[in-house]
Structures are given as C-alpha cells and as structure tokens.
Amino acid sequence: MIKILDDWKDSEEPLFLRARLVPNRSLDGHGTKIVAGIIACGFLLPIIPFIGSPIGTTLTVFSGLTFYLFLALLQKNFQEGHTFEEILISKHKITVVHKERNKEQKTWEGNPYWTRVEVDIRNAKLKNYLTLAGKGRHIELGAFLSPDERIELRDKIQNALAKANSA
Can you tell me the distance from the alpha carbon of 60 to that of 66, in angstroms, rounded to the nearest whole number? Predict the structure, then answer.
C-alpha cells in the first residue's frame, strides 16, 4: 500500500514526494480480535456437551493447542507487517529508507538529477520489478507491493523527480 505523507514540516527544504510503502494488511487489530473470537467460539461450542468426560478433556486440550497455534502464527504475521519503505524526494536529495522488523534500517541517498526509475516487466522474480538506479547502485523498491501499485509508484517517483530537476 502506498501512503503519501503530507507532514513535511520537519524538512529543511520542500519535498516533492514523501511516500511510505507498507505491505497490504487484510485485517487491522480490531478485525483480528473479531476473527479470533469467532474461532474461539467455534472451538468451544462443540466441546460444551462433553464437559466433564474424558472426551471433553481431550477435545479441550487439542482445541486449546490448535487455538494457541493459530494465535502464535497470527502474531508472527502481524510482526511481518512492520516492514516499510519511505521515499523522500527534494530538490537536492532523494532518500530511501528500508526497515524490516528486527533488522537494522537501511538508507540509500542519491541526487535526483542522476537517479533513474526502472521497471523490468520481464523479471522472473517479480512482475513489474521496480528499481532506482543512481550512485552506481540499483535498489529494489516495493517488493511487497502488487504489480499495479509498483507502476503507480514509478509514475509518482518520475513526476517528483521531474519536478525536482526543473525546480
């Protein structure tokens, strides 16, 4: 998901683009609690007639372990959602910040005049593989975005670079 940020007050010079790229999330925190509640009820309701019997105890143990595994995997999935990339384009500098959960933040800087945006539509790894080229390096952008979002991002970056180079 591409989020265009308008809070440019902390910048020394005007920004032509400030975008944050985040993985698409189908559920927010509230939706996750609702789904977990529905699944818990789904595990609990079939056990009610067997409470107090050995079958009920066995069903409770296995349902509890299954529900715990579900919650643990859901938590891991949520933690992976803390990945982001932030792109800042001003007249004199383009900065890309890439952050993954529990990994160190990587920052790339370049001059907007020499930076190129490239999309490889025939890449075997990703459809519409998006890279920025400059300072003798190519960096990947938005690997977690959909192919259409990568094309949209390319257009936004090209527009911002054109504005930065003409200013």
Answer: 10
Q: Which of 19, 18, 16 minimizes the C-alpha distance to 159?
A: 16
pTM (2 d.p.): 0.72
List of domains in the chain: 2-25+82-166 (2.30.29), 29-80 (no CATH)
pLDDT in tens for each of the 167 residues of the chain?
A: 777 776 555 556 778 999 999 888 777 778 888 999 999 999 999 999 999 999 999 999 999 999 999 999 888 877 766 788 999 999 999 999 998 877 888 999 999 999 999 998 888 888 889 999 987 888 999 888 889 999 999 999 999 999 998 87
Regarding beta strands 116-120 and 129-134, do their DSSP bridges make them parallel or antiparallel, or are they unpaired? antiparallel
Can you tell me which residue has the tokens 């900065």?
Answer: 95
- For 122-156, give one letter per residue: b (16+ CB within 10 A) or e: eeeeeebbbbbebeeeebebbebbeeebbbebbeb
**Separation of first and last alpha carbons in the chain:** 29
The token pair at 76 is 């891991």
SS3 breakdown of the chain: % helix, strand, coil, rounded to 5?
Answer: 40, 25, 30
